[in-house]
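Changelog-linked ticket: iron/sulfur cluster example.
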Amino acid sequence: MVSIKKKKTKEIKVGQIAIGGNNPIRVQSMCNTNTKDISATVKQIHQLEKVGCEIVRIAIPDTESAKCVKNIKKQINIPLVADIHYNYKLALECLKQGIDKIRINPGNISKDKLKIIIKEAKKYKVPIRIGVNIGSLPKDIIKKFGYSPKAMVESALKTIKLFESLDFYDVIVSLKSSDILQTIEANTLFSEKSKYPLHLGITEAGTIRNGTIKSSIGIGYLLLNGIGDTIRVSLTAEPTEEVLAGHSILRSLGLRKRARLISCPTCGRAKIDVIKIANEVGKRLAKIQNPIKVAVLGCFVNVKEAKIADVGIAGAGKYGILFRKGKVIKKVEKKGLIEELLKEVNKIL
Ligand code: SF4
């Protein structure tokens, strides 16, 4: 039987959450709100928290956005990461505001400016992610290695050397490309050479369906090989979808104990709106860290599937039924089915 042997990496603390070492693989996402719209950003972060997001990143395109960090942080419960490009001063302002982690791209910040950020982050004890992206590699590296996985790794290692020369070791690394094979090769190569934790992701992966498939293959392959400490599934969709996809990948590989939804594909026999109900139940189960199996079935002909589930609902004529391990417990009005199911789930938990 195939088993996953996770490569040991250095543990890095991001706010109250630890990444790497023996910690579970963390699921991250990024807000797509205007950071300056504090209430919209906080609202989105709360939605992300609800579906099990463990770390969230926000864009910091200007000083006003950086100045919002303190206010946003006050209203949320998960660590906050600042996404910094080009302007080192934005990183300094975020540090002043109490950010939990900084993400920089070594391809668009000069060595001298980076040194200033590192020194300041050290003072505040804030970790930094070196986010290497194949589309924005430094010119000298491209000259030597071209746009290749090797170039991505070289860029990360060179930047790490600079960090270490300043006695800074709170580093997380990401090596992203929109090409799955390049991402796999870069991360595999890096993990052979370094113990710093890896943040995995396929950049610009696409819409919900294509992006999830692409990410599942790329991130899934690396995780199966024991590589990766935190993941972000980049999707052209609502950020909550990224988190749900991330948890699905981890759950599929047995890396996270989460409630499992068993839902039928529906057919002409269905007596309830399985697609709508299953989607809603899936969202409501997302945060449950227990491998309970919950079924949503269009009708009750498939008793075998129902028996596998610890608890479930099925359509039955004008009503719905609630069952446990294939045994019907009660008849329920269709409009109250989801709530009854979740009540029963909570009883079991
Ligand atoms: S459980 Fe019922 S509705 Fe769902 S696919 Fe099977 S027969 Fe069809």
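Closing comment: Example verified and attached. The mean pLDDT is 94. The pocket of iron/sulfur cluster is lined by residues 264-267, 269-270, 297-299, 301-302 (CB under 6 Å).
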